[in-house]
Amino acid sequence: MTAALVVGYTATPAGADAVALAGRLAAATGASVEIVMVLPSEGRNALTPPDASYDEYVRAQAREWLRDAAASLPEGLDHRAHVRTAESFGEGLLAAAREFRASHIVVGAADGGLRGRHRLGSVANELLHSSDIPVVLAPAGSVDVTAPLDRVTVAIGTRPGADVLLEDAAALAAAARVPLRLVSLVTVDLPAGVQTSAIRVVGASHADAVLEAARAELPADVPVDVVVAEGDSIEDAVTRLAWQPGEVVFVGSSRLARPRFLFLGSTAAKMLHELPVPMIVVSRTRAPEES
């Protein structure tokens, strides 16, 4: 994660959360931060005649908010701020991310969410079903987290596409020099009625396989371990896992996603209900030039 991080900013607590999380990720990896505020384009309100003086007032206010946001970043980080216009906030963020060749887009939770929890708003929903760039979801209250990035967790099942997910998580752990934790969800995803003994065998076998794959991707000095999630449901398994204050978790897109694009799957959506740390959603495949 040494490329740019694009932050979708609004002058709200969610915007502050997104900037704070991007700052922690950038401080750990050396990435630059591009803070982007997207204003509605003229085409979104055809009933109202254009008013140049009002438009300039709005832009001036946006620039002032962006200056405040940039001032909240850790000292010494490479960062810039931008005001853009687009038909939708998500469209504007995607355009900026492609322009800056960003590795990730960071957005905050919707208003009204519980502190430390995720609540998807319209912008996050749009990105999670259309972006070809990984999206980082900041839970409510991220602005108050003082711990640096201290561990990367990746949730892995048995469906195809886990190789890209594992590579991206391993790359962040290596760049930040923090431990990588692999969470095997295979025992939670098994059909109902499977015998307990069979669950243990499948879980142990899957854990060994993903651990071997992770060690092949990581430098020798980056610690890696594997945990087999246990619980009656995905939500139950998430609450039983221990989470560190500065941790992030990677999940892959649904098998329904278009190649190289995101599509939030049912497992990730269930995890979000209970997850107290940021989630990074990546595609199941990548473009040939990225392979």
Automatic annotation (TrEMBL):
Residues 5-138, 150-282 form the UspA domain. Coiled coil: none annotated. CDD domains: USP-like. Pfam families: Usp (PF00582). It comes from the Bacteria. Belongs to the universal stress protein A family. This is Universal stress protein UspA.
